[in-house]
From TrEMBL, chains A, B:
Residues 136-251 form the DNA polymerase III beta sliding clamp central domain. Gene3D superfamilies: 3.70.10.10, DNA Polymerase III, subunit A, domain 2. One of its GO terms (molecular function) is DNA binding. This is Beta sliding clamp. GO terms for cellular component: cytoplasm; DNA polymerase III complex. Forms a ring-shaped head-to-tail homodimer around DNA. Residues 254-376 form the DNA polymerase III beta sliding clamp C-terminal domain.
Length: 378, 378
């Protein structure tokens, strides 16, 4: 095996696959990444068994030679070390050559590294995914869906299924739901070419976060194929396989109120900043709770206090405030997360009294819904 | 006490004094900072007893009003909270008002904070420094001196005096020395207006690091006053007081060889990068040791190996290589630190065999000397 490659292209590929490599694995070969060089190009694979990322670097692209293939072959090299070496090499080309006994030579300028590699056939095979149940979403929409939902997954392993996001395909629509039982985030997407049948899978939050990092911010399609135990996301030159979570995802539809008694419209940015400041004092207390109440003249007050440190009051001018007066307390962190997901747009907040969950949407679009369960303090 | 101040100027001042505030102090009032407002402006003070930083914000600067003083007075407020509040306030002006019982009101736009303050007279007084023994160094030279020496102080408390940098004023010259007994950094400075007499003090490395952060990168003078137990650095609008370390600093002059057998001149940058790469493998071993040897044709080889991972060889073309052949092993970290202090310039490295300490200077200037004690492996 021997090839010469443009160093920055190799680095870009390593950046992606390194996201799947765990240093704490119980399977020693998974601390490595697999390199396979053919006439077409270089395939890099990294995996921690839960997530597998594979990226392909074409030998030639738009008439430019990226890789000069001298001898085909494959090897597994220690991931972290290989990545750091390539990052620090002195010139823009790297020659990688494997001799007998998996000895891997990496040369660049006057720098020569010799690493002890491992047999490529010992590396786990990729999961098998039948590609008959597929649909397609643009990459930037996938990134939005992840950003709007994944923060709400549970971080506790007491109900493992809640550490993932439910993706449900039904009647031409994809509905994504995440909840840790104190708050909920839901995103609906109309699919242009929906697959036949219905699917309902729970994707680990971590997998979606890594997916979001490796796909570009473009409108190029991401192809999504679902089987019982795995999901495969195929973007341009990069594949991410993720294990699915087992167990029944709870029915969350009954959590969302069907009627509201107070509706407030205001700047999401102003609300975010007020809560953010109020949270400075709130988080000194164990619970990080802030209070929200409607005053006269469409003014919304956000406040918090800490007996040892002091108090804070913030006033926000809402653009409309209809229905009953409201006094409610909730976690500042959940509210900040929800407002971040709504991306600073003007928001509609709908309450059903101080004891019931309340929801947030943007003014423009109800495809995203954020729900927060209040805390009883009044 | 009541005044209105430009928020970003208050933040700049807080940035400086916060560097002296420790959250782990045993003296509760030192988790606060002292604010004193007079007609002239605002004085902020922060301290952990070892270091005290005081900054002055003028009420008026170049005809612009920075502070509107309504009532003079002083207060101590919780440092971290006050700093975070000011950082997040919504408008560019802040009103600070203290009522009865040290209640401190902070207002900006529609945001109102009420903090519980403490009596300013309970705050420790500044150390008294007689200002008759003084000298002056430009701010950017102070920053250079710190950068070139302070990294070499000991991090171990077994010989506390070695955690500081020796500053010795003698015969119109300032000599600064730091050593952890495995390496040494020395910087000499000719003083333009030396003080009378001789001084020799040991300044904690931490104090010098903080000093370097709060003085600007200008040629404005920093006034330095020394007493038995304290040193005071006075820059424009900011003062730093530091405790001095007690104990006798060892005589380091005998550590520095007086004759050399091998002299190599090469690019400091090329040497840095080669050592940096070799260190990727070296640091997998416990000691982080790299080898350097002179080959034919003025080539210097840097190498390292790790039995489980592999080997690395780097070649550097030196511009001259005079004297005996050299083979020597040393800590990659010490070499990288020394080369960083020499700032990427071309370097002269002088050896006295593989067992004796070796030194580095830049080609242009011998005011900075870096010494490294080798490790016996050959």
């Amino acid at each position: 095996m021997k090839f010469e490659i443009m160093r920055h292209r190799l680095l870009d590929g390593l950046n992606d696959v390194m996201k799947a490599v765990s240093l704490k694995t119980t399977v020693p070969i998974l601390t490595g990444i697999k390199l396979e060089i053919t006439e077409e190009g270089l395939i890099l694979t990294g995996s921690d068994l839960d997530i597998t990322i594979q990226t392909f670097i074409k030998a030639e692209e738009d008439g430019d030679q990226i890789i000069r293939v001298i001898e085909e072959g494959s090897i597994v090299v220690q991931a972290r070390m290989f990545n750091e070496i390539v990052r620090k090499l002195p010139t823009s080309e790297v020659v990688i050559e494997v001799n007998d006994n998996y000895h891997t030579h990496i040369r660049s300028g006057k720098s020569k590294f010799h690493l002890i590699g491992q047999e490529a056939s010992d590396y786990p095979l990729l999961p098998e995914i039948q590609e008959d149940h597929q649909f397609t979403i643009p990459a930037n929409l996938v990134k939005s869906i992840v950003r709007e939902t994944v923060f709400a997954v549970s971080t506790s392993e007491s109900r493992p299924v809640l550490t993932g996001v439910l993706w449900q395909v039904k009647e031409g629509e994809l509905v994504c739901v995440a909840t840790d039982s104190h708050r909920l985030a839901r995103r609906k997407v109309n699919l242009e070419q929906p697959p036949e049948g219905e699917y309902s899978v729970v994707i680990p939050g971590k997998s979606l976060n890594e997916l979001s990092k490796i796909i570009g911010d473009s409108s190029l399609p991401v192809n999504i194929a679902i089987t019982n135990q795995q999901i495969l996301f195929k973007a341009e030159n990069v594949l991410l396989y993720s294990r699915l979570l087992e167990g029944n995802y709870p029915d969350t539809s009954r959590l969302i109120p069907t009627e509201y008694k107070t509706t407030v419209t205001m700047s999401g940015k102003a609300l975010f900043q007020a809560i953010d400041r109020a949270s400075l004092l709130a988080r000194e207390e164990r619970n990080n709770i802030v209070r929200l109440s409607s005053l006269n003249d469409n003014i919304i007050e956000v406040s918090s206090s800490s007996p040892e440190i002091g108090e804070v009051e913030e006033e926000i001018q809402s653009s409309s405030n209809e229905g009953e007066e409201i006094k409610i307390s909730f976690s500042a962190k959940y509210m900040l997360d929800a407002l971040k997901a709504l991306d600073g747009h003007d928001v509609i907040v709908q309450f059903t009294g101080g004891m019931r969950p309340f929801i947030l949407n943007t003014v423009h679009n109800d495809a995203v819904l954020q729900l927060i369960v209040p805390v009883r303090t009044y």
